[in-house]
């Protein structure tokens, strides 16, 4: 069984436009998370498919909470 970091929220994004991704990050960094929570931004570039990219990133992050964006 995998140990998850209960204090981390990871936003996983398949990126195909760097300008749009950077703008999205500006807004994500301004989110007000609950006290004690930490933001993680995890971009996926060059994935064979969106599903493959999301699965790859899912395994890379120990965050308990994951949000998938495109």
Structure description:
- The model has no long low-confidence stretch (mean pLDDT 94).
- The protein has a three-stranded parallel β-sheet with strand order 2-1-3.
- Helix content is 31%, strand content 37%.
- With 70 residues, it is an alpha/beta fold.
Helix proportion range: 25-40%
Poorly predicted spans: none
Rg on CA atoms, Å: 12 Å
Could you give the order of strands across the largest sheet? 2-1-3
| Main pleated sheet | 3 strands, parallel
The global form is flat
Produce the secondary structure layout.
Elements lengths: L4 E11 L2 H11 L9 E8 L4 H11 L2 E7 L1
Parallel strand pairs: 1-2, 1-3
Summarize the structure.
The chain is α/β, with parallel strands linked by helices.
Which properties best describe this structure?
flat
